Amino acid sequence: MIFRGLVGGAAAAIAAATAWVRPAEASEDTGEAAGPILAKTSSIPVGGGRIIKGTWVVTQPKKGTFRAFSAKCTHQGCPVSTIRGGTINCPCHGSKFRIADGSVARGPAKRPLARKKIKISKGVIRLS
Fold first, then answer.
1. How much is the CA Rg of the chain, to the nearest whole Å?
2. I need a labelling partner for 58 at 20 to 30 A (CA). Which of 15, 19, 28, 82 fits?
3. How many whole angstroms separate alpha carbon 126 and alpha carbon 54?
4. Which positions are tagged coiled coil (predicted)?
């Protein structure tokens, strides 16, 4: 009997705490698009790109066209480190990926970089 009382009391406390937290979370609507900001469009060079926080790569293969990829090499998971000469480059084993579509330009990687969906609004690039 005592055990049931403790379990019931704990469940009620959790429900009360959850109910208290949810309205605050629901009211935090800033009106901004979903997804974190990656970069400003003006900071991404045409024909190149930027590595963002070691996690994402944002490129601009031609003026006004932006792409986003994972910064994790598909060969063995090393983070890519440079963008030069139209490729995104991994320092670990020399894999290179094209800035236009993340496809493999030079192995040993066999798969393209994972492409990420982005949304561009008012000169800001966000994950969508």
1. 22
2. 28
3. 16
4. none
Contact between 90 and 96 (Cβ < 8 Å):
yes
pLDDT tens digit sequence for 40-58? 999 999 999 999 999 999 9
Name the residue type at position 43: S
Q: Which residues on adjacent β-strands are paired with residue 62?
A: 65
Residue 112 CB partners (closer than 8 Å, separation 6+): 74, 97, 101, 102, 103, 104
Q: Domain segments of the chain: what residues?
A: 37-127
pLDDT digits (tens, 9 = 90+) for 13-31: 444 333 333 222 222 234 4
Cα 24 to Cα 102: distance, rounded to the nearest angstrom: 40
